[in-house]
Design goal:
Helices cover 34% and strands 17% of the residues. By secondary structure, the protein is of the alpha/beta class.
């Protein structure tokens, strides 16, 4: 059997990794400034992470959600403590798409309505409602197009006001920092306006923190830069440092009932051990603060490269925008400088999404590599 060919692949085969260093099958080492789409939050094979998973695997790796799993409660308590979101309840699943799917479903249950407002260049996943709320027609099959979604430009107050008027929407879903779309953000004034209008029209506000959450923006959640409170928060990617796990934080004003949401693998013992290890390291190594500090350092370094026309994002969720398409630059960085970086829907944008425990020395190496390829 062959693999279904849906991924364009670089000719690199990683076989080992440590921190932000990845080693391929030829022994070549690479610096990872992309973290596999912002998934690697505490570094590859962090010792505490590895030992936690090994220890848990020796005990029990999986059982269904039909039994008690104290690790789920322990993890929820730790997450609430570090994020400041103790007035939410946690539903665990397996991915960002599944988290957004359940968030949209919960909003529809809660309001009795079905239409969704999403934002241009937003990305929320590839499953049914999540992909319908994603601004990319090429991955939106006819089956998904049965969902009713209205797309509005970020920071367009009038368009949002005109769209939300009426009585048909169950949810507004919004990335505090767009990931795939190219690191654009709502302004604080716009985010607060959206939150106010959602409350006024009894529409559920979903903050998609799948990529921007777990400290990446320099706060635990990126919406916390704007002094608003979403009804639902979705999480995944960095929460498991590579172990497949996602979650939905649902405000305590929502009522739970048996069977309302469900999953086979979500919240299994290994997943909980992975997330607990990530939270331990984030707390012990002050990674949210490090992300904030190094985000400012990255922005200060961009003055050394006149080719960079704009800097987007916050913390260690950074986009470097050029006046040319960056595909060739990314390829050169891999093959010549041995550095992984990312692209975006904006073809001129280089995405920087490293582990949150990188250092200024690592950032210096990135800019040295960029200077060599741009000279």
């Amino acid at each position: 059997m062959k693999l279904f060919d849906v991924y364009p692949l670089y000719d690199v085969t990683p076989v080992a990794a440590q921190g932000i260093e990845v080693t391929d099958d030829n022994g070549q080492k690479y610096l990872d400034f992309y973290g596999g789409h912002a998934v690697i939050s505490i570094g590859h094979t962090h010792p505490h992470y590895v030992s936690s998973l090994k220890e848990q695997l020796d005990k029990i790796g999986f059982y269904s959600n039909s039994i008690q799993n104290p690790l789920q409660r322990k993890m929820a308590n730790k997450l609430g403590e570090l994020s400041g979101c103790n007035d939410y309840s946690l539903f665990l699943c397996n991915s960002g798409a599944e988290a957004n799917e359940n968030a949209l479903k919960m909003a529809s249950f809660h309001t009795g309505k079905s239409k969704v407002i999403a934002f241009k260049n937003g990305f929320h996943g590839r499953t049914s409602a999540a992909v319908a709320a994603t601004d990319n027609p090429s991955i939106n099959a006819p089956l998904n197009q049965q969902q009713e979604v209205s797309f509005v430009a970020l920071n367009d107050f009038e368009a949002f006001q005109n769209t939300i008027e009426g009585d048909s929407f169950c949810a507004v879903i919004l990335e505090p920092i767009q990931g795939v779309g190219g690191l654009d953000e709502p302004t604080t004034e716009f985010f607060q306006f959206v939150a106010e209008k959602c409350k006024e029209h009894q529409v559920v506000l979903i903050a998609d923190e799948v990529q921007s959450g777990f400290g990446r923006s320099g706060k635990f959640f990126a919406y916390q830069h704007h002094n608003i409170q979403p009804d639902i928060i979705t999480i995944a990617k960095g929460m498991g440092n590579g172990f497949p796990v996602g979650g939905v934080l649902i405000h305590d004003s929502f009522k739970a009932s048996y069977g309302l949401l469900g999953t086979t693998f979500g919240g299994n013992h290994l997943a909980c051990a992975a997330v607990l290890a990530v939270l331990d390291v984030m707390e012990q190594e002050a990674l949210v603060q490090n992300a904030d500090a190094l985000g400012h350092y990255v922005k200060s370094k961009t003055s050394e490269l006149p080719e960079i026309k704009n800097v987007k994002g916050r913390g260690l969720m950074i986009g470097l925008e050029f006046d040319f398409e960056v595909a060739a630059l990314r390829k050169a960085l891999i093959h010549n400088q041995h550095m992984f970086t990312g692209g975006a829907k904006n073809k001129n944008l280089l995405r920087i999404l490293p582990a949150l425990n990188i250092t200024k020395d690592h950032i210096d190496l990135l800019f040295e590599g960029l200077k060599k390829e741009l000279s």
